[in-house]
């Protein structure tokens, strides 16, 4: 082995050792979070027990008082009824295969079975089951009778008291209902074009809402469909995960490309219904999946390279990696095709937006146990720094710099665009392995000038518009220079925005995804509509 080869081997081993150490650290943090959750549950049970003892004591005192006071009878007033709390039925509803069914064949079985049920309600598969959920609106008032007439099995549902087999589709009349709370696998329909994009189908009913619904379901079933498994635990916590917003933007881009797409949070990852879609895409961030549904299985590693393992990649038909150098590393360790697919932005959401507060230095991110490198390199500072995010305390940062809690994703563009300099940093593993943060694309699209810790490929990705720093001294020098030269900041930010719009939107990523996955789908006899 030559000297350069030995040096390369040592560098690869050091990189693998670092990933292993970071993986072990993540596991420890996950165990700590689990213990914290368990402790919280124990406290909740303890509080409930105390409350029940208090109720029993109070009831006993009342009974004694009634016994002592002859005029204090029970009276004839009826007790206040308590509505039973009934959750959605756990019954999976229609079956699309037995124990020996190849999971890769489920999408075909699902499509064919539901199309037969949709167009032949008296056939062997039985009628298509449709649930109506929420108060009827003017648009949905005639749906029940219109759908029942051709023989569909239509039932009125209540989210707090739904029972019976899981329906094939749910039509929601109350637009306040979060589609992410519906059972995995049902076709979620909102008869309103302005409904939450999380619904599988949003339509304007027109003069014949029942016919519009049937036609929309038919087109949805015949199309190539994608399920994205997202690391967020549930709809209740999804907004706090950056991966959720990335997944939603990619979902919208795939839909625009003609592939209906829906998200599945971690609590439903292993639901059989996830495998009814043709392609299952797993976003590998902070959590890895353990099951492999779908006709075509795709991985997109967007962060945390320490979680990458050859045996994990081997579960998939194709792996995308948000880093050129790390894609090359993993390509040499697995037989699965590995391709780079960088992070991106939604230019409709992230664009120059007036109205944000003007900050000299802006950092938007939560505190984390591993620290925030750019703040460690910056502080102390006499510059006007504003930090927004969760889990910051007076012990973790000077309160003078703490500007507020986490900012809603819908407001970020205005904040980015109003700042003189937006600051960004990366997890150590991402920085080492060439993963570029999603914030770089979002902030650049919003017209911001960004300084970040230097990552391989940064300059080429944004045509030099985003500036990377090497160390503490370099960071302070860059901040001083660019605050004194606003025209240069503006030129850099325009350069970065032009690069993002030209090459790094989710529409660009969707095209790459469709081109790469379509041949795999054809090999397995799937739909490519």
Task: Give an overview in words.
Among the domains are: 125-222, Response regulator (Rossmann fold), CATH 3.40.50.2300; 224-344, 3-Layer(aba) Sandwich (Rossmann fold); 361-504, Glycogen Phosphorylase B (Rossmann fold, 3-Layer(aba) Sandwich). Helix 6 links the parallel strand 9 and strand 10. 39% of the residues lie in helices and 13% in strands. A 6-stranded parallel sheet has the order 7-6-8-9-10-11, with helices on both faces. The chain has a 6-stranded parallel sheet with strand order 14-13-12-15-16-17, with helices on both faces. The protein has a 5-stranded parallel sheet with strand order 2-1-3-4-5. Helix 5 (242-256) packs across helix 15 (506-523). The protein contains 15 helices and 17 strands. The chain has 529 residues and is of the alpha/beta class.
Question: Which descriptors apply to this entry?
Answer:
about 525 residues; alpha/beta; Rossmann fold; 6-stranded parallel sheet; 17 strands
Q: Order of strands in the sheet with the most strands?
A: 7-6-8-9-10-11
Shape: globular
Which structural class matches the secondary elements? alpha/beta
Could you name the CATH homologous superfamily of one domain? Glycogen Phosphorylase B
Distance between the termini: 51 Å
CATH topology term of one domain: Rossmann fold
DSSP E strands, number = 17
Unreliable sequence segments: 69-87
Whole-number radius of gyration? 27 Å
CATH architecture descriptor text of one domain = 3-Layer(aba) Sandwich
Number of helical runs? 15
Share of helical residues = 25-40%
User: Could you name the CATH class of one domain?
Assistant: Alpha Beta
Beta-strand content:
5-15%
Q: Give the overall pLDDT as a whole number.
A: 85
Largest sheet: 6 strands, parallel
């Amino acid at each position: 082995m030559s000297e350069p080869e030995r040096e390369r081997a040592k560098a690869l081993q050091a990189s693998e050792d670092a990933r292993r150490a970071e993986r072990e650290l993540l596991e420890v943090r996950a165990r700590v979070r689990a213990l914290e959750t368990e402790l919280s549950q124990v406290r909740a049970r303890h509080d409930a027990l105390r409350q029940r003892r208090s109720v029993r004591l109070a009831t006993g005192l009342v009974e004694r008082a009634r016994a002592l006071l002859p005029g204090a009878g029970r009276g004839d007033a009826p007790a206040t009824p308590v509505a039973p709390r009934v959750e959605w039925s756990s019954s999976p509803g229609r079956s699309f295969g037995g124990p020996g069914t190849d999971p890769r064949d489920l999408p075909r079985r699902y499509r064919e079975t539901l199309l037969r049920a949709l167009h032949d309600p008296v056939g062997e598969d039985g009628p298509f089951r449709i649930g109506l959920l929420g108060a009827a609106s003017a648009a949905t008032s005639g749906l029940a009778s219109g759908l029942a007439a051709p023989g569909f099995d239509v039932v009125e549902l209540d989210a707090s008291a739904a029972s019976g087999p899981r329906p094939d589709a749910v039509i929601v009349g109350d637009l306040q209902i979060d589609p992410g709370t519906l059972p995995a696998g049902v076709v979620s329909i909102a008869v309103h074009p302005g409904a939450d994009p999380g619904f599988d189908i949003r339509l304007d009913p027109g003069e014949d809402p029942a016919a519009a619904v049937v036609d929309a379901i038919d087109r949805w079933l015949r199309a190539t469909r994608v399920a994205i498994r997202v690391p967020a635990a549930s709809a209740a916590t999804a907004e706090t995960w950056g991966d959720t917003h990335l997944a939603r933007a990619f979902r919208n881009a795939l839909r625009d490309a003609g592939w209906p797409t829906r998200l599945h949070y971690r609590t439903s990852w292993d639901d059989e219904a996830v495998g009814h879609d043709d392609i299952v895409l797993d976003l590998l961030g902070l959590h890895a999946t353990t099951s492999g549904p779908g006709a075509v299985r795709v991985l997109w590693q967007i962060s945390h390279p320490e979680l990458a393992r050859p045996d994990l990649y081997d579960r998939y038909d194709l792996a995308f990696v948000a880093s050129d150098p790390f894609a090359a590393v993993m390509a040499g360790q697995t037989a699965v095709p590995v391709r780079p697919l960088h992070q991106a932005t939604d230019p409709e959401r992230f664009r120059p937006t007036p109205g944000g507060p003007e900050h000299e230095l802006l950092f938007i991110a939560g505190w984390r146990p591993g620290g925030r490198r750019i703040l460690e390199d910056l502080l102390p500072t006499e510059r006007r720094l504003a930090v927004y995010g969760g889990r910051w305390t007076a012990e973790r940062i000077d309160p003078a710099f703490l500007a507020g809690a986490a900012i809603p994703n819908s407001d970020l563009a205005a904040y980015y665009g109003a700042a003189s300099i937006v600051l960004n940093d990366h997890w150590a593993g991402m920085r080492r392995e060439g993963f570029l943060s999603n914030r770089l694309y979002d902030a650049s699209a919003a017209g911001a000038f960004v300084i970040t810790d230097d990552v391989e490929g940064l300059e080429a990705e944004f045509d030099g518009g985003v500036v990377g720093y090497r160390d503490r001294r370099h960071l302070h020098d860059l901040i001083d220079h660019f605050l004194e030269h606003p025209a240069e900041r503006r030129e850099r930010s325009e350069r970065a925005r032009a690069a993002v719009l030209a090459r790094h939107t989710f529409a660009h990523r969707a095209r790459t995804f469709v081109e790469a996955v379509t041949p795999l789908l054809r090999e397995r006899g799937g739909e490519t509509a």
